[in-house]
């Protein structure tokens, strides 16, 4: 009985500590400001090349090249609540998951999918090259003038 | 009839005749003679009403050809033909192909011609030579010729015609007539046709942002002559520099052809001795028209624009003229075979062939192979991997017109699985009344349709405007037919090869053909929605054409996009995903016959496949249990031609319906 009480006490203490530390993180990190900018991700397990641009005003641009060919361009809006990032494409499709944001430094961001999958992506801060913007293929209802029409 | 088509009038073959006799009443007709039976066994080539008189092609055995190669041709001729009225015996190919190894592999060195007095019935000589055991095959030399009037409507700048130009056309070249070229940029202007549809074109406007063709792509125009002095074609012609700068009457480049500067004339009847000739009586301008669709010079301030005619800096594809027809004369099977070999040997990577044997001449592929063996072998010479010259292709591409008999199958040779057969559409994206469709047809393209346009000829712009011959009509004229649809596909293919070369990519013939046949827009829905369509003074039902015009209407932009990379599809791991094959097989994906899905063991392991993928009505069902990416290949059948597409499957725990990464 005593052992059980001690265990419960320790668990409760740990949970409180975790909660306090999270709160502390929420308070000290401006996720929106950190997220703003241009990011690049090259997955290890997939033949893909991803650039993402998060605007301060809540818009995003996504340039993704999967399996070769030119980048496809998507756009839409994002929102965040503390470290949780979510979004919607301009064609109305929801993102496949919400993500937890972690910044290991000013130039590295880890997005961890919150849909139960083990999907973790590590982005580095990097401008989208002009040739990617100029040669991308437009997808659905996005409307970047530089892009060629979707096929 | 205004549209142009080439046709060979064919009468009953010897073999068919023999079989018919036995079916009718064997007791009332005499038994066939020994020589007739021999010919029936060795007959290759149908005895046409227009076969060449005093001339036969024969295929001898290896022992005989070995003796001939040792210099014993006179002795062999004496032994084979003594007692017969044979006047000449010589190799069928007046110039042996450069690639001797491939030529021998295909048996091309074993073909010979025999000549005799034109007053002697060809069949009689054929029976006599068929009795010789050294002679394996006997082929009549069929003569192709235009069966219609091949009428072209000259471009004459009358006020009514000037007023009929399309509004809103934005072709980015300063060629003054291109606002009439709805086939390149169809704005849906009702002056073209009341039923004209915006976008019912070859999809080249966006494609031109990526490439307008490159000069290293040589397209052989196997057709009537290309007028190489035409102001809109001169700078687009393939030029044999050694001959151009050489001595007249001398084979300066050692390719066995004398003075072949822009190509060669394979019609031997006129005495022009290989010189390209467009001034004979009966010339129609057909070859020059076809050439202009593919490669008339863009941006030169003259005439028309073309699909692969460059950016205005002299950088378009090059056109090689392989003349098969001169006036009303035809080079026959032997000349057509030699033209394809010449094209391959001199660097062409695409053979553009707007001719064929009319539908129902041959029952199936085997029938063609058996009855036109020399031409069949020449086609195989052209596409042989060892004859590929362009770095983007492991073997050459050959494209034929489907034919203009309104028949429910393609003409041969286009119907062969190794060839692409092209059907014809009007400015309404619907089948034109003349076009063949059905078995053997692979792809549709604008061919023009006079009967949906204005009743007033001077205002009718619903055919295809291209270069022509001033000696026949004018420098520019309208024509229509699958003969015109075919070069649209050849032009798009030329753009594709140009772009693949630019990207440093390389494709097998099967891969490139698959890309070509899946770079299409759907026309079946339009056909289903339409009912009747005018043709001449009548109307015809479009119902039989649905799903039978090939995979769809060619789209240049889609081809270039496919060349850029393996298409990918993202699916969610841990569940069964259903993937529409539309993006990979074109908009007619749900009407195709899918054959199989190929996936190797490593890919299965990577993706954690729970079961074999399966396809139902154009939808691929696949269950991947693991995250990872791997390639699979899907096979389908289009008009007898097998095509395949490689797909990159990305299996992730995150999935969005629109394929976005987030």
Q: Topology, please?
A:
The complex is a heterodimer of chains A (151) and B (662).
Chain A: H1 2-28, H2 31-35, E1 37-41, E2 48-54, E3 59-66, E4 72-81, E5 84-89, E6 99-105, E7 108-113, E8 120-125, H3 130-135, E9 137-138
Parallel strand pairs in A: 4-9
Antiparallel strand pairs in A: 1-2, 1-8, 2-3, 3-4, 4-5, 5-6, 6-7, 7-8
Chain B: E1 6-7, H1 14-24, H2 34-42, E2 55-60, H3 62-69, H4 73-81, E3 86-91, H5 100-105, E4 111-116, H6 122-130, E5 135-139, E6 145-146, E7 153-154, H7 159-163, E8 218-223, H8 241-244, E9 263-265, H9 286-295, E10 318-323, E11 325-326, E12 329-330, H10 332-345, E13 350-353, H11 365-371, H12 373-382, E14 397-401, E15 420-425, E16 443-446, E17 464-467, E18 476-479, H13 482-503, H14 509-518, E19 520-521, H15 524-529, E20 532-535, E21 538-541, E22 553-554, H16 556-564, E23 568-572, E24 575-580, H17 582-585, E25 593-598, H18 601-607, E26 614-616, E27 619-624, E28 628-638, E29 641-652
Parallel strand pairs in B: 8-10, 8-13, 9-10, 13-14, 14-15, 15-16, 23-29
Antiparallel strand pairs in B: 1-6, 2-4, 2-5, 3-4, 7-18, 11-12, 17-18, 19-22, 20-21, 24-27, 25-28, 26-27, 28-29
Helix pairs in contact in B: 2-6, 9-13, 10-12, 11-12, 13-16
Describe this structure in words.
The complex is a heterodimer of chains A (151) and B (662). Helices cover 25% and strands 38% of the residues of chain A. Chain A has 3 helices and 9 strands, in the order H-H-E-E-E-E-E-E-E-E-H-E. Chain A has helices at residues 2-28, 31-35, 130-135; strands at residues 37-41, 48-54, 59-66, 72-81, 84-89, 99-105, 108-113, 120-125, 137-138. An 8-stranded antiparallel β-barrel of chain A has the order 1-2-3-4-5-6-7-8. In chain A, strand 4 (72-81) and strand 5 (84-89) form a beta hairpin. Chain A is globular and about 65 Å long. With 662 residues, chain B is of the alpha/beta class. The model of chain B is unreliable at 1-28 (pLDDT under 50). The interface between A and B is medium-sized, with 37 and 30 residues.
């Amino acid at each position: 009985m005593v052992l059980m009480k001690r265990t419960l006490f320790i668990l409760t203490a740990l949970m409180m500590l975790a909660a306090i530390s999270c709160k502390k993180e929420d308070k000290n990190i401006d996720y929106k400001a950190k997220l703003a900018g241009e990011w690049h991700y090259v997955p290890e397990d997939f033949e893909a090349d991803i650039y993402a641009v998060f605007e301060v005003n809540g818009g995003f641009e996504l340039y993704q090249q999967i399996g070769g060919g030119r980048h496809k361009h998507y756009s839409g809006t994002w929102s965040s609540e503390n470290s949780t990032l979510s979004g919607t494409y301009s064609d109305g499709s929801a993102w496949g998951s919400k993500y937890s944001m972690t910044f290991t430094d000013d130039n590295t961001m880890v997005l961890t999918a919150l849909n139960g999958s083990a999907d973790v992506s590590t982005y580095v801060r990097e401008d989208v090259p002009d040739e990617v913007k100029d040669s991308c293929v437009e997808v659905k209802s996005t409307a970047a003038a530089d892009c060629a029409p979707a096929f | 009839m205004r549209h142009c088509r080439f046709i060979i009038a064919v009468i009953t073959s010897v073999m068919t005749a023999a079989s018919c006799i036995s079916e009718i009443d064997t007791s009332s007709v005499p038994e066939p003679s020994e020589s007739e039976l021999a010919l029936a066994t060795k007959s290759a080539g149908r005895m046409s009403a227009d076969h060449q008189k005093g001339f036969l092609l024969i295929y001898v055995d290896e022992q005989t050809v070995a003796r001939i190669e040792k210099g014993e041709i006179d002795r062999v001729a004496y032994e084979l033909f003594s007692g017969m009225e044979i006047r000449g015996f010589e190799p069928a190919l007046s110039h042996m192909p450069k690639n001797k190894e491939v030529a021998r592999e295909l048996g091309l060195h074993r073909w010979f011609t025999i000549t005799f007095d034109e007053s002697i019935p060809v069949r009689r000589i054929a029976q006599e030579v068929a009795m010789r055991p050294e002679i394996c095959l006997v082929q009549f030399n069929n003569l192709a010729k235009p069966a219609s009037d091949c009428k072209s409507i000259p471009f004459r700048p009358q006020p009514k015609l000037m007023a009929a130009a399309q509004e809103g056309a934005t072709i980015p070249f300063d060629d003054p007539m291109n606002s009439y070229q709805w086939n390149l940029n169809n704005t849906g202007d009702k002056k073209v046709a009341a039923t004209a549809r915006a976008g019912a074109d070859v999809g080249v406007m966006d494609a031109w942002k990526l490439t307008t063709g490159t000069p290293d792509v040589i397209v052989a125009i196997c057709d009537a002559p290309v007028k190489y002095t035409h102001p809109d074609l001169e700078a687009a012609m393939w030029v044999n520099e050694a001959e151009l700068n050489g001595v007249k009457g001398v084979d300066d480049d050692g390719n066995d052809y004398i003075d072949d500067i822009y190509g060669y004339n394979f019609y031997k009847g006129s005495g022009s001795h290989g010189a390209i000739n467009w001034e004979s009586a009966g010339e129609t301008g057909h070859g020059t028209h076809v050439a202009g669709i593919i490669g008339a010079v863009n941006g030169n301030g003259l005439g028309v624009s073309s699909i692969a005619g460059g950016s205005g800096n002299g950088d378009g594809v090059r056109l090689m003229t392989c003349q098969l027809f001169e006036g009303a004369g035809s080079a026959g099977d032997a000349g057509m075979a030699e033209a394809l070999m010449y094209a391959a040997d001199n660097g062409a990577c695409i053979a553009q062939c707007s001719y064929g044997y009319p539908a129902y001449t041959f029952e199936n592929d085997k029938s063609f192979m058996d009855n036109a063996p020399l031409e069949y072998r020449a086609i195989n010479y052209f596409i042989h991997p060892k004859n590929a010259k362009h770095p983007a292709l492991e073997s050459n591409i050959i494209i034929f017109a489907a034919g203009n008999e309104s028949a429910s199958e393609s003409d041969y040779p286009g119907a062969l699985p190794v060839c692409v057969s092209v059907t014809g559409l009007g400015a309404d994206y619907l089948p034109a009344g003349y076009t063949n469709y059905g078995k053997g047809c692979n792809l549709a393209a604008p061919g023009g349709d006079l009967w949906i346009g204005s009743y007033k000829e001077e205002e009718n712009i619903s055919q295809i405007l291209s270069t022509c011959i001033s000696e026949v009509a004018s420098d520019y004229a309208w024509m229509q037919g699958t003969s015109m649809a075919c070069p649209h596909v050849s032009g798009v293919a030329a753009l594709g090869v140009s772009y693949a070369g630019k990207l440093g990519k390389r494709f097998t013939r099967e891969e490139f053909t698959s890309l070509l046949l899946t770079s299409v827009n759907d026309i079946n829905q339009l056909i289903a929605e339409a009912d009747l369509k005018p043709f001449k003074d009548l109307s015809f039902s479009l119902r039989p054409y649905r799903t039978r015009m090939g995979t769809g209407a060619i789209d240049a932009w889609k081809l270039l996009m496919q060349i850029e990379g393996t298409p990918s599809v993202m699916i969610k791991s841990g569940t069964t995903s259903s993937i529409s094959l539309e993006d990979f097989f074109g908009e007619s994906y749900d009407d195709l016959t899918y054959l199989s899905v190929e996936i190797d063991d490593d890919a299965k392991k990577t993706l954690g496949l729970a079961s074999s993928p399966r396809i139902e009505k154009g939808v691929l069902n696949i269950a991947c249990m693991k995250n990872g990416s791997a390639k699979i290949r899907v096979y389908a059948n289009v008009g007898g031609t097998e095509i395949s597409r490689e797909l990159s499957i990305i299996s992730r725990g995150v999935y969005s319906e629109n394929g976005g990464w987030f």
